[in-house]
């Protein structure tokens, strides 16, 4: 095996041992007793990113042990088309592939998600403490869904008419497991705008898991959620598009993608916990725009900004304005004034304007968010504006 | 007996509706549905039990029979197995028609 020069640099060794989330936390410090610590945290975060990029470029070289995700403990169960969970264990961490494609896809998707969170954010599993990852496949008969039930992943096979099996999409698996991360962090209430933010976070990190697996830049990524899970014959690319919300599908059997990309299209509805899967299109598009504004791979900057907001700023009843302000603030802490400007501009393009001074490098600055009448307009429309969905 | 099921939410956020008139069904299917409705004591169920867990499909089931009607809302996590079986059976029969 090739020896790698990086091991001779003690600074690099330290960065292989200290998880990036420690540096992320340092970067947010504003305590006057620790002058300069925030700046060093920001520098270290940037250095971690460079180091990971370097490792990825060294083809054929075994990654350092500290980045291989040794805490991964996956178990896949077969629910055998019944209602009982978890079912029978059919593949554990040390086992090789089985003859069941759903089992193997679930195993690989759980692994890709664990690796993303560990390598990019230094997070050890869903709870940050090495929670074993359990998933059940073949849940119920022709079940058109997949979900995180607070303890484990559950996958249906789809009915074959509308949906294929739900294990077929890596970003769906990342999406569902991120609901677990949100559960342990911001705890965003699954209703209305906080619920749409919960969905948004799952789409963001679900997409980043896939982009990380494919080593794609923001520009090359498809930004689709659920590509490949529509059954043959359904006219659609995916369930949602972060790049172009509202364009993912259009078919008489399932209706048209109802997602807005801007606050001017905000939908008030009682279905779906207040349209959590609809209005998530607005922050989703802001994240896409921020990622394009930063350039490069989306997980390097935009992903870190959103992760910092999710884990340290947002709370259970946060709305879009709060999320916009929190991510602008996080961008300022991690990447300075230029970073804050990129994120602020992205939100403005979807109709949410964050006002206030950019956070300085070491001093916490209060930021105010204001949606220019958009929320008020949306809420004044009265009940159920959505009429295009198919029955 | 008329059974009306509205599904919303789920990972895909789709809204779908199914309606059945059990009188128009073959005898065996009609009896199996009647057993399921009686088994869950549908007309005595609380009107809403929702878990608010992410990506659960929400089901709004309305049944009309002999001049009375009752509507119940539940989801994949909050619904009893027998209620979920009822929804599964209605969906299968509606799709087959």
Please describe the structure with a list of short key phrases separated by commas or semicolons:
heterodimer, A: 391 residues, Elastase, domain 1, 5-stranded mixed β-sheet, two-stranded antiparallel ribbon, 11 strands, globular, disordered C terminus, B: 97 residues, alpha+beta, 30% helix, 34% strand
Summarize the structure.
The complex is a heterodimer of chains A (391) and B (97). Chain A has 391 residues and is an alpha+beta fold.
Plain-language structure description:
The complex is a heterodimer of chains A (391) and B (97). In chain A, a hairpin with a 3-residue loop joins strand 8 and strand 9. Chain A is α+β, with helices and mostly antiparallel strands and 391 residues long. Chain A has three domains: 5-66; 69-168, Elastase, domain 1; 192-379, Neutral Protease Domain 2 (Neutral Protease, domain 2), CATH 1.10.390. In chain A, the strands form four sheets. Chain A has a five-stranded mixed beta sheet, covered by helices on one side. In chain A, strands 6-7 form a two-stranded antiparallel ribbon. Chain A has helices at 10-17, 20-27, 37-57, 101-121, 170-184, 192-214, 271-279, 281-294, 302-312, 320-349, 374-379, and strands spanning 74-78, 88-92, 133-137, 146-148, 153-155, 224-225, 240-241, 250-251, 255-256, 353-355, 368-370. The radius of gyration of chain A is 21 Å and the shape is globular. With 97 residues, chain B is of the alpha+beta class. Chain B has one domain (2-96). Chain B has two helices and five strands, in the order E-E-H-E-E-E-H. In chain B, strands 2-1-4-5-3 form a five-stranded mixed beta sheet, with helices on one face. The A-B interface holds A 83, 140-142, 144-150, 159, 161-163, 166, 172, 175-176, 179, 182, 189-191, 198-199, 202, 226, 239, 254-255, 258, 271-273, 276-278, 389-391 and B 8-17, 52-58, 76-77, 81, 84-85, 88, 92, 95.
């Amino acid at each position: 095996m090739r020896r790698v020069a990086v091991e001779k640099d003690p600074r690099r060794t330290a960065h292989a041992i200290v998880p990036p989330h420690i540096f992320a936390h340092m970067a947010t410090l504003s305590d006057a007793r620790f002058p300069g610590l925030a700046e060093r945290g920001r520098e270290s975060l940037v250095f971690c990113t460079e180091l990971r990029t370097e490792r990825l470029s060294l083809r054929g070289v075994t990654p350092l042990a500290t980045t291989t995700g040794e805490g991964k403990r996956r178990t896949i169960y077969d629910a055998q088309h019944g209602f009982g969970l978890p079912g029978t264990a059919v593949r554990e961490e040390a086992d090789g592939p089985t003859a069941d494609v759903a089992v193997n896809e679930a195993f690989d998707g759980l692994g890709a998600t664990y690796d993303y969170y560990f390598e990019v954010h230094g997070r050890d599993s869903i709870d940050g403490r090495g929670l074993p990852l359990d998933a059940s496949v073949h849940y119920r008969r022709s079940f058109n869904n997949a979900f995180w039930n607070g303890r484990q992943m559950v996958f249906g096979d789809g009915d074959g008419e509308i949906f294929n099996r739900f294990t077929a999409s890596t970003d769906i698996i990342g999406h569902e497991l991120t609901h677990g991360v949100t559960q342990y962090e911001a705890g965003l209430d699954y209703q209305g705008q906080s619920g749409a933010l919960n969905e948004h976070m799952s789409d963001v990190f679900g997409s980043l898991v896939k982009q990380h697996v494919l080593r794609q830049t923001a520009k090359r990524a498809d930004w689709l959620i659920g590509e490949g899970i529509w059954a043959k014959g359904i006219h659609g690319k995916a369930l949602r598009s972060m790049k172009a919300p509202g364009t993912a599908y259009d078919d008489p059997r399932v209706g048209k993608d109802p997602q807005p990309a801007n606050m001017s299209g905000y939908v008030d509805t009682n279905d779906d916990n207040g349209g959590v899967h609809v209005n998530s299109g607005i922050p989703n598009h802001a994240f896409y725009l921020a990622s394009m504004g930063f350039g490069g791979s989306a997980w390097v900057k935009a992903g870190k900004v959103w992760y910092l907001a999710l884990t340290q700023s947002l709370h259970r009843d946060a709305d879009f304005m709060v999320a916009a302000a929190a991510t602008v603030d996080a961008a300022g802490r991690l990447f300075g004034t230029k970073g804050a400007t990129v994120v602020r501009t992205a939100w403005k393009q979807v109709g949410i304007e964050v006002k206030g001074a950019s956070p300085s490098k070491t001093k916490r600055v209060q930021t105010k968010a204001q949606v220019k009448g958009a929320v008020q307009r949306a809420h004044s429309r009265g009940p159920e504006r959505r009429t295009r969905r198919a029955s | 007996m008329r059974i009306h099921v509205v599904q919303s939410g789920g990972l895909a956020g789709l809204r779908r509706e199914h309606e059945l008139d059990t009188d128009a069904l073959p005898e065996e299917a009609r009896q199996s549905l009647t057993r399921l409705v009686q088994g869950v004591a549908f007309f005595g169920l609380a009107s809403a039990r929702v878990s608010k867990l992410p990506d659960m499909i929400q089901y709004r089931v309305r049944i009309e029979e002999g001049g009375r009607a009752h509507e119940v809302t539940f989801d994949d996590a909050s619904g009893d197995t027998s209620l979920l079986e009822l929804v599964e059976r209605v969906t299968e029969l509606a799709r087959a028609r």
